[in-house]
Structures are given as C-alpha cells and as structure tokens.
Amino acid sequence: MPVKSSGVLFERGARKLGYHPFPAPIAIISKPYQGRIPCQHCGFCMGFGCEMGAKSSPLPYIIPQAIATGRCEIRPESYVHKIELDQHGRAVGAIYFDKSGRENLQHARAVVVAANGSETPRLLLLSKSNRFPDGLANSSGLVGKYLMFNTDCLAMGQFEHPLNEYKSIEVTRLIHDFYEIDPKHGFYGGGGVDARFLFYPISFPMWGLPQHVPQWGSEFKKAVNKYFTRTMMCAGHTTSLAMENNSISLDDEVKDAWGLPAMRVTYKDHPDDLKTCKFMQDRGMEILEAAGAQERWTTPIEESTFGFHLLGTCRMGKDPKSSVIDIDHRTHDVPNLFLCDGSSFVTSGRGQPTETIQALAFRAADRITALAKKNEI
Amino acid sequence: MSAIPSQKRYKLTDTVDFLVIGCGASGAVLARELAHNGFSVVVLEQGPWLTASDFTHDEYRHWTQSLLTNDYRKQPTTFRKTPQDKAVKQPHSLHRQFLALSRDRFHRGKQEGHDHRHWLHRLADNLRRPRTLLHQSRVRAGRLRPGGREPLRSTALQAVSTAAHAGEVQRSPL
Question: Of A20, A46, A97, A194, which has the fewest Cβ atoms less than 10 A away?
C-alpha cells in the first residue's frame, strides 16, 4: 500500500526522536487477488462496508470459501437466545428467532459460540437451566467478568500544506517503541502510536477541530476549509487491565425488542490505563511537533463509557475455578460447547485485537477438528 | 460480494456436526475451517446478509445511525461504572455516545458564546429580520431555510443532539 501523507510525516517525526516507525499491517488487498478487486483508496474504511471487497473482512473472502465447501449454511437474521442441553448436560443445539420472529431449534452435535466479548457471555447468561442456574458453563462465576476495552487517545496536528488525509486506508505507519512502558514511570502499561485521520466530512467539523475554533459563522467555515485537508492525528492504542468488576451482565429492567434482558455493561478504567493513555498521547504530541506541525491539540483523557474492543469475558485457563474455557476453547462445564472470540482473551494485549481473534479461530478450528476426529467431543 | 450465493441448506431436524453462533471475524473462520475439514456446519448470524450495493459512503447513515451495527433501539444496552451504581440506558448509537461525550470533551466556541444553543436563541431574530431583499425573497420562496446560510453546522448539531436526547431521530431502514 502507498504511504499516506500522515505516514510520511509520522515517520519523519518519529525518526527525529529516535523511534522506529514501520509500515502498519493491514488486511486490505493492494492488487487483484483471487477474483477480488484491489483497494480504490476511496477513504471510507472504518465504520463503512467495503463495496470493492478489498477490505478482508469475512464477507468477501472467508464466507464465500466456507459456502464453496458445499457443507456450510449461513443463516442471517437469526437471533440466538438459548443453548439447549439434554439430560446429560450436553448441548443439543440452539434456539433462535428467525427473521419473522418465529422460534426455531437447530440441532447439532457440538456448538461453537463466536459472538465476541459481549454477546457470547450474554448468551451464556441467558441460557439458564436447572443444571446451570447462574448461566451456562458458569460454574466459575466468571462468565461476563474481566471485560477489557483497550484504551485510546488522540493527539492532532495541523500542517502548512494539504495532507488530504481523507483519502485511502486508515493507517500506514506506526511505532511500537512503547509496547512495554518502563515501569520506572510508576505505572503498568504499553501500546502503539499510529498516524491516521479518523474523521469524515461531517464528523471532522463536529469533533475534529481545535477548541478555539467557533462553532458556526464565517470563521468556522474558514477553519473547516483550512483544517480538513491539513490535519492528521497520532492515535494511541493501549492496554486495559483485567479487573473482575468490569463485566457484561443482564439488566434487571431493560429488555430488548424480543423481550430478553438487555446487556448491562459495568466498566471503570484502571488508573494505570489512563496514565498509559496520557503517556502515549504525549508521545503523539512530540511526534507531531518533530514532524513540523504548525498547531497541535488533544482531546481530554477520560474514563470509558463505551468500548470498541470486547475482550476477556469468558477467559481461557487450565483451572475450571478461575477460567471458563480450556486451552482447546472447550468450556470446562459442557464437553461439546466451545467459545472462541475476544471473550477468550485473558489480557487485552496492546489494542487492535481482530487479527489475534482470527488467529485464535484458526487454531481453535484445528484443535476442535482433532478432538472430533479422536471422537472426544 | 455482488449477490448472495446459493448455498447448502439443512433442515432444523438435521443434526449437523457443528452449529456456529456468529459469523464475524471468528465465526466465519471457524465455519470455513470446520466445513473444509469435512464437517457439516450451520452458522446462525443475527445481522442481515449485506452485499456491495448495501455499502455507500453516506456518513450520516453509517456513523450517525450506526447502519452496520446492531440497532440500539431493538437491542439497547445499559451502562454503569461500578456494580454499586444503577445502570442507565446508553445513547442509541455510537455517534450519540460521542455527542454525549462531546458536551465536555469536544466543547468549542463556548468562550465566544457561539455554541449551537446561542444560535437557537437567535433563530427568532433571524426569522424577523432577513438581511437582504434577495434573502427575504428566497426565504419566502422556500428556497432557503430561515436563518440563512451560516449556521449549517449549528443546525445539524442542534438537530441531531436535541433529537438524540428526545429520542426523535428515526433510524432509516436498510
């Protein structure tokens, strides 16, 4: 992928400070590949679907291959709300609402839940039974606990010449020089800093401009004209520490449109996570200065009220008392129930977990296949 | 990408080898690998099957209305900081969660008294005193909104934020 203006400036600034910028790994194809069209650099990656199919989400790439086996059916608009057990405590399938709202039970020899770190524990908690009154596979009491988001921070800079950052992919350069922050600073944490723009034409004037710019009028208009093409940011992506109080649970009062208890999120960042954030934002500001930004500004570091990365809520481990799944992604409590997604994590790493989640899925498929072939499921 | 491909169909009464719940980054990989390894697989996915023609560059629908994620109206979530707190319903979209933050986090222009509420208070004045005859005639002809040209962003912010708090913005269907 060609480097963006932000990548060039980031590399310049980071090298001046003695850091080691490198090309960001991205799952977007730059050349035609297996019948797929390469990236057209339209600039609408994050939050948008890729109509080119160049962004390697499962839709243009993995799902067609699954279907091509002739053994896989994908049923969209199927909202699962219970995993059904037999009298021996084995999963027999799952009950779901189809598009018309009708309840169906699909039978299966084994069930794999891959609904990520919030919906996976919610489904287990919804699947209460006499055998599992506190939620399915929850003998440890840890289903939904240890939720981690990954924290993030922004440092923005305006440059003399247009950067036209609205074009092309999100990120082309980053540093991992602070993947492990020296404990001498007095807190635990680490992460990366990358160069990006993040905003779009509506969101930038609403949230991206520096604080001194008026919110309307000719000065506002002039500012949008000046800043939109000349701004880039250094975004930090950092650790969230695992804490038992941070969790996904079922709400006592609020229900969803199907009458099921809504998801309740309990979350308070560890003080070290916020210190890590501030540390990384400061590095971003230094890089922008070294790169020659004319003006720099930040957004305040605040406690999270929502998250993008949903990790840790059905943690993996050997001890059934302190974990939900074993090293094969099998739940300690139900032999033919597997969980594999962000919920399997025991730490949050340093942010950007999707590739790790996918790698875990490939590994889990191998281990589950091996167990099935040995007739051990 | 362009169309939904034809695929193997199983009956509800068929006992398939694996039932995978969720067809995202992990579930799709598991389905592909398990099917490739010879097993029969059904994947249950709560979202719709989207194709290339569903993807646009409409920032309002994608960001403001969270087009590609769960509909928060149908599937609300609640939030609290600690187990001792009472959980409250979260705003209906990611955009509105940002807006909720933005009152403190992205508050700009406040020192000049130029925030969107200020403009709202001036709306009546603007209605009474169109600035030019041309402007006046355009307003009368319905070709300009009362208030003229300058507060485009303010009206957008005001409309979205007040509607968000009142729960008025309707999510357009896919």
Answer: A20
